[in-house]
Specification:
Radius of gyration: 34 Å
Number of domains: 2
Order of helices and strands: HHHHHHH
Structural class: mainly alpha
Largest sheet: none
Strand content: under 5%
Distance between the termini: 86 Å
């Protein structure tokens, strides 16, 4: 990070005064290291620094006001809400009716029982399985 000549770095000064006031605070030390490495802090980090710095009695109020102005100038980022989760599989009422019709006439039909179990467990039925159900229902209507 290159510092410009003649520019006052209020954040660095506040960080140094916080380190003197709180020498064992890991929060202040980590903020200082990040500021030295990256050259900036996020809005939340600056708010935390402001909270720590406001407790120091010897700190000039102009520095706190400058830090507060920097914080207010930064944009506030909001996370959008996640969309409500949709079910992976939506039950087809026609398929449920076909299974019920077949099992009403033939309650021991093994293939229909298997497909009913699969249908009840919200597992998708393949097109071949749906075609089997249609074929079984036509066959059961003829009987």
């Amino acid at each position: 990070m290159q510092k410009q000549k003649g520019k006052i770095d209020i954040i660095n000064e506040i960080l140094e005064e916080c380190i003197l006031a709180y020498p064992v605070s890991s929060f202040v030390i980590s903020l200082y290291q990040r500021y030295q490495l990256m050259g900036s802090l996020s809005k939340k980090q600056l708010q935390g620094l402001y909270g720590k710095a406001s407790k120091i009695k010897g700190l000039l109020p102009g520095k706190l006001a400058t830090l507060e102005a920097i914080i207010k100038r930064m944009p506030t980022r909001y996370k959008s809400e996640l969309p409500s989760p949709k079910p992976l599989f939506e039950k087809d009422t026609e398929t449920g009716q076909l299974i019920a019709a077949i099992l009403s006439k033939f309650p021991g039909h093994k293939r229909a029982l298997f497909l009913k179990t699969k249908f009840d467990n919200n597992e998708p039925l393949s097109t071949a399985e749906i075609n089997d159900l249609k074929r079984f229902s036509k066959w059961s209507e003829n009987k």
